[in-house]
Amino acid sequence: DARGLKDFYKNYFPIGVAVGKRNLSGEEGALIKKHFNSITAENDMKMESMQPVEGKFNWREADSIISFAAQNNIKVRGHNLCWHEQAPSWFFTDKAGKEVNKTVLLQRLKAHIDAVVGRYKGKIYAWDVVNEAIDDYSTKYLRNSKWYQICGEDFIIKAFEYAHAADPDAKLYYNDYNTERPEKRERVYKLLKSLKDKGVPIDGVGLQAHWSIYEPTEKELVTAIERYSSLGLKIQFTELDLSIYPWEKNKRAKRADESDAYTAELEARQVAKYKMVFSVFRKYKNVITNVTFWNISDRRTWLDGYPVPGRKNYPLLFDTQLKPKKAYWAVIKF
Ligand code: G3I
User: Fold this and answer.
1) What residue's CA is closest to ligand 1, atom 15?
2) Which candidate in 239, 258, 265, 267 is catalytic?
3) What are the pLDDT tens digits along the chain (334 aa)?
4) Cβ atoms within 10 Å, residue 295
5) Cis upstream peptide for 307 (omega within 30°)
6) At CA 241, angle to CA 301 and CA 296, rounded to 5?
7) How many Cβ atoms are within 10 Å of 237's Cβ, its own excluded?
8) Which residues line ligand 1 (CB under 6 A)?
9) Collapsing DSSP states into helix, strand and coil, what is residue 185?
10) Which among 116, 123, 127 is positioned nearest to 69, based on CA atoms?
């Protein structure tokens, strides 16, 4: 069959994948061209990759992703402009090693966003402007990151304003994980609502979708989509994968175990979960504007060894030989 995932979903939404420069040639490159019409840089557009040293930008990897996309008629999602991880420490300190004040930090954020968004103006159609600003603890609201400590909530507002000024046509997203869990969902909703109420230029919310074969339930997924879209926001599923291990057990497991095998039973559950989530996605095609997988195949995924060292995971639609898995056939049959 010459058709790929993107063809089956052409009347729904673009289908994306997270990549690095190394993935763009050979058999992986061919697989990307066949199945995907959107790409995201897995790491190459993050703050430390783009501007490792103040004023010294590194465009090499990001440029090659952009030109691969242009040559193959693939859209690009930008990931990301402001995050507490993979943000180099020079942002937060002066030459003497002292913490900078809010004015200086916001100037640096603006200079970064101007340069990055400006360079790819018209080439990146949607940006994750702020990533993961909500705290992990249910009793807290915004994450106590350096950004927050120095700027308070303003860093979020300003990041969107700077991005909008640098490319008024780019769609701007707030991106986070565990966004279907009820208590986190409500804290994310609170942030999104406050941004909308203040007139901040935000187009939508990125739901990362680092899920597992155990969660979310259909009800949790539907409730989240309806809750966020009630604010008039679009939704993109930005980092989809379905771990074969439950996240809660992960926290306790210290190392890989012999029982950590990809059994037929686990695969069957994964097929069912993929089927469910894609059938929900199709129902909400009017608000969902992108669905992106976090990596191409089970050959290499960020979940290998995370959070349990040495443990292999199998969260995607293509196997370690790049062949479509049962879950692939399940999501294209509708
Ligand atoms: O590039 C260096 C390499 O030179 C070095 O030899 C090697 C040794 O560890 O590290 C390499 O860098 C790693 C980088 O991935 C590239 O592979 C970093 O250590 C590693 O921390 C980094 O992990 C990335 C992670 O974000 C960082 O927090 C993952 O690949 C990437 O998949 C992951 O993606 C995040 C999203 O951006 C946001 N949402 C969650 C998602 C999963 O954590």
Assistant:
1) 43
2) 239
3) 899 999 999 999 999 999 999 999 999 999 999 999 999 999 999 999 999 999 999 999 999 999 999 999 999 999 999 999 999 999 999 999 999 999 999 999 999 999 999 999 999 999 999 999 999 999 999 999 999 999 999 999 999 999 999 999 999 999 999 999 999 999 999 999 999 999 999 999 999 999 999 999 999 999 999 999 999 999 999 999 999 999 876 666 777 876 789 999 999 999 999 999 999 999 999 999 999 999 999 999 999 999 998 999 999 999 999 999 999 999 999 9
4) 23
5) yes
6) 50
7) 24
8) 42-43, 85-86, 131, 208, 239, 302
9) helix
10) 123
Global model pTM greater than 0.80:
yes
Give the ipTM. Answer: 0.94
Cα(207)–Cα(212) distance, integer angstroms: 14
From 19, 21, 23, 42, the mutation candidate for ligand 1 (largest count of ligand atoms within 8 A of CB) is 42
| 183 classed as catalytic | no
Q: Is 23 helix (H, G, I), strand (E, B) or coil?
A: helix
Query: Hunting for tokens 């402007």 — which residue is that?
Result: 129
Q: Which two tokens stand for residue 211?
A: 């899920």
